Amino acid sequence: MENIFVYCEITEEGHVADVSLQLLTKGRELSRQLGVELEAAALGKDMDQVAHQVRPYGVHKLHLADDDCLFPYTTLPHAAIIAGLCQQIKPQIALFGATPVGRDLAPRVASQLQCGLTADCTSLVIGDHHDKKSDTTYKNLLYQVRPAFGGNIIATIINPETRPQMATVREGVMKQEVADKPADMEINTLEVSDLTKAEHFLIDILDRHIEPKKVNITGSQIIISGGYGMGSKENFQLLYQLAEALGGEVAGSRAAVDAGFVEHDRQVGQTGVTVRPKLYIACGISGAVQHRAGMEQSAKIISINTDPGAPINNIADYAITGKVEEVIPKLIKYYKKHAK
Amino acid sequence: MSFRILVLVKQVPDTRNVGENAMKADGTVNRAALPAIFNPEDMNALEMALKVKDERDDAQVIVLTMGPSRAADVIRESLYRGADKGYLITDRKFAGSDTLATSYTLAAAARKLMPFNLLIAGRQAIDGDTAQVGPQVAEKLNLPQVTYAEELQDVSGASVIVKRRLDRGVETVKVDTPVVLTVHSSAEPCRPRNAKRLLSFKHARTVTELQNEVKDYTSLYNDRPYLEIEEWTADNLKVDDEWLGLSGSPTKVKKIENVVFKQKDSVQITGADEDLDKLMKDLVDSHVIG
Ligand SMILES: Cc1cc2nc3c(=O)[nH]c(=O)nc-3n(C[C@H](O)[C@H](O)[C@H](O)COP(=O)(O)OP(=O)(O)OC[C@H]3O[C@@H](n4cnc5c(N)ncnc54)[C@H](O)[C@@H]3O)c2cc1C
Ligand SMILES: Nc1ncnc2c1ncn2[C@@H]1O[C@H](COP(=O)(O)O)[C@@H](O)[C@H]1O
To answer: Looking at beta carbons, which residues of chain A come within 8 Å of B16?
Structure first.
């Protein structure tokens, strides 16, 4: 009762998704703060490895449903199991990844449980709330922080009355760290046939073509990111050269992705991934709020821009005024000169 | 029996083009400075419905929107592009609805329009980007949902085939109707206004709008009943007031802040050789790279 609950999404490759591991990390922190336990659920088929992947994150109890009918994901059986489980274990907080699966599942579950759900959170914090109208103080609510209005404002949302307090969270915005001393994890095997009914299997998957994830820029310590100012797909080659020299990954702004300079998997920002590398080099990127939202936590930021007044320069440690075509080859040259 | 399609469309502030003047000094959004537009993915949803009409003579497209009086604009826009009929769900009691209260209200309206074969929504509205209303309406109606629909491939029988757009691929599913679909932006864009329909529906109005007109159109509306955009309030729906608007919304906004980024004391450098030489040396020496 009153525990923290995390839905663990299973990827095409049969692993627990990174975003779920990030939520377990966050869930562990929240559960310590509130003095409660961390529970998780994973639904899929051939799940032998899942407990092993989840345990290091300090989960107290893992609810496991292993059945051929649960993979590939379809909405109704997953929603029935998760809603049923929540009614039974009554968590105070329930977290989902803001992935296509999480954003399909969480609203359905929230509607069934008649509780509030906040989409696409970028930060989760515990805090109190005083309602003036009813003069009531709520202790230890979950502050669900998210960008709103196209990223132009940041809203803090609370659910004072309903439980669980539900949120979806974007991949990459929370840290992913195993526990120092993981708890002893209890495994509860769910009886899929008890929790689902024939009417939950109305969707017939005829065909699927899902590409495995090719790039994962969130794992890289050095990111060379290009914007619309790169001018062309050909010029992006410069970024790959710099990335190769420095041992990093190439990323891009949405304008660069939309222009076809770089693939969507590499987009950084509010509608792309959030990164926090040691070094982020922004090349020909103006630094719109939606882009900065995905990279401002980088330890060091270098910008290369012809416009000294570009907003990206406000958050850059080094602002280089110049043309990318000229600056990048020089960076490669002088890096090679000094590299040990 | 005709093949009935309900489409959920929403009027939203254009958050994609937020200029400086759209933000008030206190960091909140000045909604008045943002033009109200037809939510982009709802346009894709409308097109998906209209396509069915191209294929089936018995198809009927009915648009539904919940919002203030001026939201009738998106219904007129839908009529210009090929929709058959529109309903405006409007009431002060709906003010402050979050996605749960919105879906409760929209589901009640949809129930009143039963039977239908498809209920199509956009994936998400750009004012909140939540993508929650579609699945929540589906749950409230106890119907299956197919999210991120990109193409309806077969609508000839009692089931439909839908192609879905996922992060890294596509999935094709078959499902019996009635079903709720939410439409992804990668689906076909909406056809333009049809000139003839624009002329026919230019004067389409809700009762409230008619009352505010200076000219008396009574005779026109008696002759052409199709010009009426039906208006439903909470009283027209089987709803419990407790679940509407602010009181029916479990989520509350505690705080709205301007986006502020930490300003850094940045080192300004030029693209000259000596500057870049020194920069790379510093970065290597401080172990940021290398
Ligand atoms: C809801 C919403 C979500 C969004 N999500 C994202 C997101 O996730 N990620 C994202 O990036 N954006 C996102 N955007 C878009 C964002 O608002 C900006 O449009 C986008 O980030 C701009 O990309 P850019 O900086 O590459 O292009 P521009 O703004 O066009 O900037 C190009 C820059 O290149 C410079 N330049 C030009 N030529 C050269 C040269 N030869 N050498 C050096 N510099 C040069 C210019 O001075 C300029 O500063 C979103 C927008 C909305 C409304
Ligand atoms: N007030 C509304 N009236 C009609 N449709 C709506 C309304 N709110 C949301 N929708 C539909 O639900 C979709 C998802 O909205 P949202 O959950 O707000 O992102 C939209 O694209 C619309 O199709």
So the answer is: 150
pTM greater than the 0.90 cutoff: yes
With CA atoms as reference, the chain A residue closest to B163 would be A207
| pLDDT tens readout for residues A69-96 | 999 999 999 999 999 999 999 999 999 9
Nearest CA in chain A to B276: A331
- A 10 A CB-CB count for B160 gives 23
Cβ contacts of A202 on chain B, cutoff 8 Å: 144, 175-176
- Residue A132's beta-bridge partner residues? none
Residues in chain B, pLDDT under 70: 1, 19-29, 261
Helix (H, G, I), strand (E, B) or coil at B21: helix
CATH of B3-248, one of 3.40.50.620, 2.70.70.10, 3.40.50.970, 3.30.390.50: 3.40.50.620
Question: Taking CB atoms and an 8 Å limit, are B271 and A323 in contact across chains?
Answer: yes
Task: Report yes or no: B172 and A206 within 8 Å, Cβ to Cβ.
Answer: yes
Please name the amino acid found at residue B131.
A
Give me the domains of chain A, ranges plus CATH numbers. Answer: 4-201 (3.40.50.620), 217-338 (3.40.50.1220)
Amino acid letter for position A60: H
Q: What is the DSSP string of B140-164?
A: HTT--EEEEEEEEEE-SSSEEEEEE
Suggest the residue from B34, B106, B132 to mutate for an interface test with chain A (most A CBs closer than 10 A): B132
CB proximity list for A241: less than 8 A, separation 6 or greater: A328, A332
Torsion sign (Cα): B206, B211, B215, B218:
positive
- Nearest ligand, CA A261: 1
Virtual torsion, Cα B36, B40, B45, B49, nearest 10 deg = 70
Q: Which residues have C-beta atoms less than 6 Å from ligand 1?
A: A 150-151, 227-229, 253-256, 267-272, 284-286, 288, 290-291, 294, 304-307, 310, 323-325; B 16
Which chain A residues are Cβ-neighbours of B290 within 8 angstroms? 246, 335, 338-340
Atom of ligand 1 nearest to the CA of A255: 23
Contact at CB, B290 and A338, closer than 8 angstroms? yes
Q: What are phi and psi of B219, to 5 degrees?
A: -70, -40
In degrees and rounded to multiples of 5, residue A282 shows phi and psi of: -95, 115
- Of A108, A205, A247, which is closest to B171 when you measure between CB atoms? A205
Distance B214 CA to ligand 2 centre (A): 32
Q: Which helix H or strand E contains B253, and what residues bound it?
A: strand B252-258
For the stretch A26-74, pLDDT in tens is: 999 999 999 999 999 999 999 999 999 999 999 999 999 999 999 999 9
Chain B residues with beta carbon closer than 8 angstroms to that of A302 = 279
CB atoms within 10 A of CB B260: 9
Percent of chain A with pLDDT over 70: 100
- Residue B168's pLDDT is 86
